[in-house]
Amino acid sequence: MTTVDPALPLSPYREIGRQEWARLAAGIDQPLTETEVVELRGIGDRLDLTEVSEVYLPLSRLLSLYATATKRLGAATSDFLQEDDSTTPFVVGVAGSVAVGKSTIARLLRELMSRWPGTPRVELVTTDGFLYPNAELERRGLMERKGFPESYDRRSLIEFLTAVKSGVAEVRAPFYSHMRYDIVPDAHVVVRRPDVVIVEGLNVLQPPPAPNDVAVSDLFDFSIFVDADTSHIEKWYVDRFLALRQGAFANPSSYFNVFAHLTDEEAITTALGYWNEINMPNLVENVMPTRHRARLVLNKGADHSVESVLLRKL
What we know:
The chain is α/β, with parallel strands linked by helices and about 325 residues long. The chain contains eight helices and nine strands.
């Protein structure tokens, strides 16, 4: 019989504070310049060289170690089976709310992981490409639920990842334009058996819709959830909307050009409307409940910096 101290909380995760995690970067050279970090940073993110060095450099090293160890295990398995090595790309999923900074993190990890000797070839695919085209969303009455699980072509995403994990030489994913707010016909992201594929999206940790279905995360080797207090994410979302109004929305070709001339008050009201009617419900109903499915959780504070890391125990 196992005796458990009731005073000790049970958790499958190690909780690592910021200072303790940052110490893991000791002796690791910073491979990125300040200019490169600025280019990778999304609108509203406050990513700087310190954050890269103390948080994401150790994380990229950990991911590279996992990928390299998985490759070795694959080679050993092939050797045991007396067949040629057929190890497939190491797939990392990055999940979290809209405006939480997961796209910036995914881009940053792609750059950092490619600097490690064991993972020089890293590709990034976003699940935006697997949204149904706007015309199909309109036909299904789902335009107001864009970003919810039902707005994605889940079957195509599963087929894409299955091909990647089957070792197919070249796999194509649809391309999504944020300027057009739609899938671009005949445009693709091409993945040619890299060492690592990073898949970033809102709902990548969703359980399968039916017990016998394959979950997207079943095809991941490692998964990350980017977490923050809901009130912070709401503020980041509104701030990003205001910044886009003066930037990308001002482009006449932008789907959101109609918002370019809103006053500050009108823009805030509009952003809060989208947040409260679409993004907040999606976060509460679909995104947050998948947090516990991640191998690693990044907990962000109000200033977008990571305050602690949860790493699932092996």
